[in-house]
């Protein structure tokens, strides 16, 4: 069967997977880490084994070369790569769907770097290196922002002088779009009326956001021009009074950029709990009676519920509420705390189903009296990237 190499380039890491479009587990998965440092390494997960090796070249090129070498060394697996799918964080207003990459597209991705200075330049690097080594294959870009390009102006504009939007494209873009599109497609396959229904999706992971989906289209989401807006996250503060930025900068004698770094990297669950950004660690601390952990989890749930209620104002009803992402899929504690705060919507969890739903599977966890179906649906952004890549290759 035809396979796709799915590539997700960060500034110092490169995640990858080789998979077909069927939904079967990837043939190979892995991550190249600490790129840019002499301790860079690459881990291959294959056939239940995990192999870690140092990189000879400590950059994105070194990572892509190692992946190609791995494929060449495993000829017996008969890997038939037909294309490469690249995850791209920011597509601005230029990209509302996945596209085959040519020079103009690459330039477009580069042009969006001002909104995602850590991500888009890394994507461009990764695409360049992959094209150099796998030049004979088609390359496809799949954008985190694309799904939200259906939002109306009254949702995506910030209430700031319009010239700032006209001249600089400062607006809400939203992220996690590939995950929301995947979940929407799953729900559509499970509900024949999905095309006329209303859905709230909470993608809760280290990054977290929510989305309101009307008839399969994003109508509002919590993240903004960058993934800092909206919910409290692992290390990100989410929304707060923008004046705080200048207060922090003045009080600490640091630049605005450094203050922004605090909001991006030192805040959220990590900042409040003073324990970790990792939900599992915080839940363990809470269970052992740690008050800071309890506070961090309550704040996380409260912000998630508030943003769900906020984006729900775009819907006439809530037919489905979906939890996904590492926390959404695996934390009954937080699902319970969030649903508890959404009682006014008529949302009611079945406590037993919430506690016992099996990991990695689609489950319904609502009680019979709930106004909305509550779901846990594991997301699979890589699969959607592979499927988009295959379908664009087919079309062309
Ligand atoms: P993601 O960014 O989607 O990979 O999600 C990462 C987050 O999911 C981290 O905060 C993890 O602690 C959290 N997570 C993963 N498994 C569990 C679990 N069993 N219980 C609570 N949180 C979890």
SSE run: EEEEEHEEHHEHHHEEEHHHHHEHHHEEH
Distance between the termini: 19 Å
Helical amount: 25-40%
Mean pLDDT: 96
Uncertain stretches: none
- Going across the major beta sheet, what is the strand order? 5-4-3-2-1-6-8-7
Q: How many structural domains in the coordinates?
A: 2
CATH superfamily of the largest domain: ATPase, nucleotide binding domain
Note the quaternary state here: single chain
- The level 1 CATH classification of the largest domain is Alpha Beta
Largest sheet: 8 strands, mixed
Word description of this protein:
The record marks 176, 236 as: Transition state stabilizer. Substrate binds at residue 87. This is Acetate kinase. One of its GO terms (biological process) is acetate metabolic process. By secondary structure, the protein is an alpha/beta fold. It has two domains: 3-143, 2-Layer Sandwich (Nucleotidyltransferase, domain 5), CATH 3.30.420.40; 193-381, 2-Layer Sandwich (Nucleotidyltransferase, domain 5), CATH 3.30.420. The protein has helices at residues 60-73, 103-111, 120-133, 153-156, 162-168, 177-190, 243-252, 256-265, 268-273, 279-287, 291-311, 325-330, 332-340, 351-356, 381-395, and strands spanning 3-9, 14-19, 28-33, 41-46, 49-54, 81-88, 99-100, 139-143, 198-204, 208-214, 217-221, 320-324, 363-364, 373-376. The strands form two sheets. Strands 5-4-3-2-1-6-8-7 form an eight-stranded mixed beta sheet, sandwiched between helices. A hairpin with a 7-residue loop joins strand 3 (28-33) and strand 4 (41-46). Helix 11 (291-311) packs across helix 13 (332-340). The chain is globular and about 55 Å long. The model has no long low-confidence stretch (mean pLDDT 96).
């Amino acid at each position: 069967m035809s396979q796709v190499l799915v590539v997700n380039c960060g500034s110092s890491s490169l995640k990858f997977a080789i998979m077909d479009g069927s939904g079967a587990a990837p043939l190979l998965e892995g991550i190249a880490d600490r790129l840019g440092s002499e301790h860079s390494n690459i881990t291959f997960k294959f056939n239940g084994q995990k192999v870690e090796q140092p990189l000879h070249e400590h950059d994105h090129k070194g990572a892509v070369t190692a992946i190609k070498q791995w494929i060449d060394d495993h000829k017996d697996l008969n890997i038939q790569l037909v294309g490469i799918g690249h995850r791209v964080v920011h597509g601005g207003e230029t990209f509302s769907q996945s596209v085959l990459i040519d020079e103009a597209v690459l330039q477009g991705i580069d042009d969006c770097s001002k909104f995602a200075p850590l991500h888009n330049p890394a994507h461009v690097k990764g695409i360049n290196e992959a094209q150099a080594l796998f030049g004979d294959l088609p390359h496809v870009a799949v954008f985190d922002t694309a799904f939200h390009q259906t939002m109306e102006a009254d949702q995506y504009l910030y209430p700031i002088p319009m010239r700032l939007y006209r001249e600089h494209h400062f607006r809400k873009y939203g992220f996690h779009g590939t995950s929301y599109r995947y979940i929407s497609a799953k729900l559509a396959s499970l509900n024949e009326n999905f095309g006329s229904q209303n859905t709230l999706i909470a993608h809760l992971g280290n990054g977290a956001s929510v989305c309101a989906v009307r008839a399969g289209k994003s109508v509002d989401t919590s993240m903004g021009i960058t993934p800092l807006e909206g919910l409290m996250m692992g290390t990100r503060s989410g929304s707060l009074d923008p004046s705080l930025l200048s207060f922090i900068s003045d009080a600490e004698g640091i630049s605005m950029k450094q203050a922004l770094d605090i909001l991006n990297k030192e805040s959220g669950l990590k900042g409040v709990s003073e324990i970790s950004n990792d939900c599992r660690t915080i839940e363990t601390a809470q269970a052992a009676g740690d008050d800071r952990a309890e506070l961090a989890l309550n704040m996380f749930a409260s912000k998630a519920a508030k943003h769900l209620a906020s984006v729900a104002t775009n819907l006439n009803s809530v037919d489905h509420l979906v939890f996904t992402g590492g926390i959404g899929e695996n934390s009954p504690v937080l699902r319970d705390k969030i649903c508890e705060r959404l009682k006014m919507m008529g949302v009611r969890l079945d406590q037993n189903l919430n506690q016992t739903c099996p990991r990695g599977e689609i489950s319904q966890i609502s009680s019979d009296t709930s106004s909305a179906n509550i779901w846990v649906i594991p997301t699979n952004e890589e699969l959607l990237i592979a499927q988009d890549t295959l379908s664009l290759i087919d079309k062309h």
